[in-house]
Design goal:
The complex is a heterodimer of chains A (549) and B (271).
Chain A (H helix, E strand, L loop, with lengths): L2 H14 L11 E6 L14 H10 L4 E3 L6 E3 L2 E6 L5 E6 L13 H12 L19 E4 L4 E5 L7 H5 L20 E7 L3 E6 L18 E6 L3 H9 L5 E2 L4 H7 L5 E8 L3 E6 L9 H7 L2 H10 L2 H8 L4 E3 L22 H10 L3 E3 L2 E3 L7 E7 L3 H15 L4 E7 L1 H11 L4 E6 L10 H4 L18 H14 L4 H18 L2 E14 L2 E2 L18 E2 L8 H6 L1
Parallel strand pairs in A: 1-10, 17-18, 17-19
Antiparallel strand pairs in A: 2-3, 4-5, 5-7, 6-7, 8-9, 9-10, 11-20, 12-20, 13-19, 13-20, 14-20, 15-16, 21-22
Chain B lengths: L1 H19 L1 H4 L31 H37 L1 H16 L2 H11 L6 H15 L2 H15 L2 H8 L4 H35 L13 H5 L5 H6 L5 H25 L2
The chains are: A alpha+beta (549), B mainly alpha (271).
């Protein structure tokens, strides 16, 4: 090999890992999506990537401040909710326009609500407004003032409106005409989504400068989390959300990166058993999974502290229920899960299980062996599953782990019911119980252990249905809390879902990003996107580029 | 060169002996978690340290080597045998059979196997033993890895059939089976060997990628493929260089196999 070739081979890896020093647009924020958005229609968004694009592009009447958890005026200058929670009076800001220049009036707000309530559209965003049958009545008093009456009270309506992007009734661009800080400029499936600044965005800063400060936002489609962090270090990305704990610790040592723990989230990792009526399981396994003692024993045999320590490196806390103890909706009477394998064995024996040579067997002599399905793309879940596998081995239960491609996994748990136990996470945008209607109602397609029940299969599920409906249709926070407290107690008693941990919001971002305040509530990083700016915006060179020149 | 080959053979035998005898050589299994000593650096007790769950990295490396270094060559052999059979049959029979065989090869090469693999996963039971799961994975790789070898094999076979020495052998009255075994097969061996050496490391790495579809080696069973997923982050490797052990072992095995097989392949070339 010649010296030139040798030098080239040694330099090549160095070049690959070298941060790009030129060619970066001055105020283009670069971040990533873990998959393509399924829809750009804000009414049809039902997954993470779509929600992110909607947050950047959608103009909302009321925006929740993710740090203070207070409602702030958005397109609506002022609003008032009737005491019974059914009627909303709004006054829009004057002079509002969509990104294509068409005016934004109460007609557009009316159009948006009618669309959300349209049963034919089946909008996931509209679920929160449909706590009972009926139509929404709109009374438009002027282009700026209106009243909206819902068929039933809508609990925490300000939080619900934070998800509702107002759409234009007149624009030929349809959902491409937006009232948020950015508008969609270009999308290449599997590669990127490019947003450009909305010149008609309503908000201005204290000096009267129209927001947002950024000119553009570019999302790379990047599913690999290690590559995401490598690209952050190389300066190709400027923000990474939901960083794996192991990567987070490494990023803390990076000088040009801020790695921040924004605190406990309302997200939760959980395990549940398939109790679906149409489950493709032997009858004896159905009997195990429907046994309360069996589920409680499995819960007691899992060492959550070890999951927190070994998998999350301390950036999580053991979960006591569907919400973390830091939430105002948390029921303080919950005892919380205790790691107690001896108690787990007693529970199992009281339910008719017996030990033979260290292996647990049911009354019919069947060895207790089951599989846990989880998402193949998550290293964190693979580790949790391995810990659970060893924990359950100590009570004589053998577990096989089946890591599946995500879509295949969702199909098994929500359509074919072809699984035994599932380990997955639940993402909560906020901690309001209304956001969990689709989890707890027995008729819901997202009811984890037994989806779309025609009637509640058990008395306790019927009680949960009643309590969730009660909290959803009440405007009284005290009554809502009482109803959701009872839901949490029933869930603790019955353990249909075994809650494992609440992870912390681990985020990382470039030191170039200004005014970024990480929040425990989603979106953790860019909740104030219209006020974020870059250190090299306004024509100034960033330090690294300047040094290179 | 002979000394090098003997050294390589000794090293290879040593590696295989350690891998196959992992259960005897090590205490505790590959799944045993020592949670109080998780994430430790290499030391006197754990020579390659422990992983995040407190599992001994050396033990997992030996068991992982056993999984990959036994099953990946078997899968590569299966793929090579299929490529040789289809390619040589196509050339020997010629005409419509050859066109059909090459058409089939092109169709198989251009099929989006991602969806086919997802379908395979869908029909497999979930409660399957990890050892059976990994055997199925490598069997699938072997059954899908043949098309790349068919055209070179067919070309080589075609050239042989029209060669003078083979025509002389026919004229001397040598029967078709003897012709195939004594004259054609040895001349196809270098092409087959090239296909084998090319597919072997690809299969080891492909197994790790198949894990993302739920078809790879299931936890807690280790393989060289899933152990090497830890080296995807360059910075992590720089801080923890012992993570390179599975990759170095793979390179060592591949190098030794190449060195040992070199004279065998050279002797075929001079026929």
């Amino acid at each position: 090999m010649t010296a030139h070739k040798a030098a080239f081979l040694f330099l090549l890896p160095a070049c690959l890992f070298q941060a790009p020093l030129s060619g970066q647009p001055g105020s283009e924020l670069r971040l990533s999506l873990r998959h393509d958005p399924r829809s750009f229609d804000p009414a049809l968004v039902d997954e993470d990537a779509g929600e992110t694009i909607r947050y950047f592009t959608g103009g909302v009447l009321i925006r929740m401040n993710r740090v203070t958890q207070k409602a702030e005026a958005g397109l609506a200058e002022s609003w008032k909710v009737s005491p019974d929670g059914r009627k909303l009076r709004l006054k829009l800001r004057a002079g509002l326009r969509f990104s294509d220049g068409t005016p934004l009036t109460t007609d557009d707000v009316s159009f948006t609500f009618q669309r959300l309530m349209d049963p034919a559209l089946n909008s996931p965003t509209g679920d929160a407004f449909r706590s009972s049958a009926g139509t929404v009545a709109v009374d438009i008093q002027s282009p700026l003032e209106m009243a909206v009456t819902f068929p039933a009270p809508v609990a925490s309506i300000e939080r619900v409106l934070d998800q509702v992007a107002i759409q234009s009734a007149r624009s030929a661009l349809k959902e491409r005409a937006v009232a948020g800080p950015f508008a969609l400029k270009e999308y290449k499936a599997g590669a990127f989504v490019l947003l450009e600044r909305n010149p008609n965005y309503w908000r201005k800063d204290a000096k009267g400068q129209r927001l947002p400060y950024l000119d553009a936002v570019r999302f790379s489609i990047q599913s690999n989390r290690e590559m995401e962090s490598v690209r952050l270090r190389r300066g190709e990305l400027q923000m990474v959300d939901a960083v794996d704990p192991e990567i987070f610790d490494r990023l803390k040592a990076e000088p040009a990166v801020v790695a921040a723990d924004a605190g406990a989230t309302t997200d939760v990792e959980m395990l549940w058993f398939n109790q679906a009526n149409g489950a493709q399981l032997p009858e004896y396994k159905k009997a195990w999974f429907r046994s309360r003692e069996f589920r409680q024993a499995i819960s007691a045999a899992i060492n959550r502290s070890d999951i927190v320590r070994l998998v999350y490196r301390g950036y999580a806390q053991p979960a006591a229920g569907p919400l973390p103890p830091s939430s105002v909706w948390f029921n303080a009477k919950l005892r919380g899960p205790a790691y107690d394998p001896a108690r787990a064995r007693r529970w199992l024996e009281s339910a008719g299980f017996r030990y033979a040579g260290g292996q647990l067997r049911d009354a019919g002599g069947n060895a207790v062996v089951f599989s846990i399905v989880t998402s193949a793309s998550s290293n964190v879940r693979a580790k949790i599953a391995a810990l659970i596998q060893q924990d359950l081995q100590t009570i004589g239960v053998r577990v096989n782990i089946a890591a599946l491609e995500f879509r295949s996994l969702i199909q098994r748990i929500s359509e074919t019911a072809d699984y035994e136990a599932c380990l997955l996470g639940m993402v909560n945008v906020d901690d309001d119980p209304n956001g969990q209607m689709n989890v707890w109602l027995s008729s819901s397609a997202n009811h984890p252990w037994n989806p779309s029940e025609k009637a509640p299969a058990t008395a306790w599920e019927a009680e949960v249905d009643r309590m969730m409906a009660a909290q959803s249709s009440s405007a009284d926070p005290r009554k809502r809390k009482q109803a959701f407290d009872r839901v949490q107690e029933v869930v603790e008693e019955q353990a249909p879902v075994i809650y494992l941990i609440n992870p912390h919001a681990l985020v990382a971002y470039s030191t170039e990003v200004r005014d970024l305040v990480p929040a425990p509530a989603r979106p953790h990083l860019f909740w104030n996107i219209d006020r974020l700016s870059l250190g090299n915006s306004g024509g100034a060179l960033n330090a690294r580029t300047a040094a290179a020149r | 060169m002979k000394a090098v080959r003997i050294s390589c053979l000794a090293a290879l035998l040593g590696i295989y002996a350690c891998a196959i005898g992992a259960g005897v050589l090590t205490r505790g299994g590959y799944a045993q978690q020592d949670r109080e000593h998780a994430g430790e650096r290499p030391g006197a007790v754990h020579w390659l340290g422990t992983d995040d769950l407190g599992r001994d990295r050396l033990v997992r490396l030996l068991y992982g080597a056993r999984t990959s270094l036994v099953l990946a060559p078997a899968a590569a052999l299966l793929a090579t045998a299929l490529a040789t059979a289809i390619g040589s049959a196509a050339a020997l029979m010629g005409g419509g059979v050859e066109r059909a065989a090459l058409y089939l090869t092109d169709v198989v090469s251009s099929t989006p196997w991602f969806f086919a693999l997802l379908m395979v996963r869908a029909v497999l039971p979930l409660n399957v033993d990890p050892a059976l799961s990994v055997a199925i994975t490598f069997a699938i790789l072997g059954l899908l890895g043949w098309p790349q070898g068919v055209r070179p094999m067919a070309a080589r076979s075609g050239a042989m059939i029209h060669s003078e020495f083979l025509q002389q052998a026919r004229a001397a009255g040598i029967g078709p089976m003897r012709l195939l075994a004594r004259h054609l097969a040895p001349n196809l061996a270098p092409v087959a060997a090239a296909h084998f050496w090319a597919t072997l490391p690809v299969f080891i790495l492909a197994e790790a990628n198949l894990s993302l579809l739920g078809l790879g080696v299931a936890e807690p069973l280790p393989s060289l493929g899933n152990l090497m997923t830890e080296i995807r982050d360059f910075q992590n490797v720089a801080q923890h260089p012992w993570l390179l052990a599975p990759a170095l072992l793979l390179v060592a095995v591949m190098g030794a196999l190449q060195a040992i097989s070199q004279p065998v392949r050279s002797s075929y070339d001079c026929t």
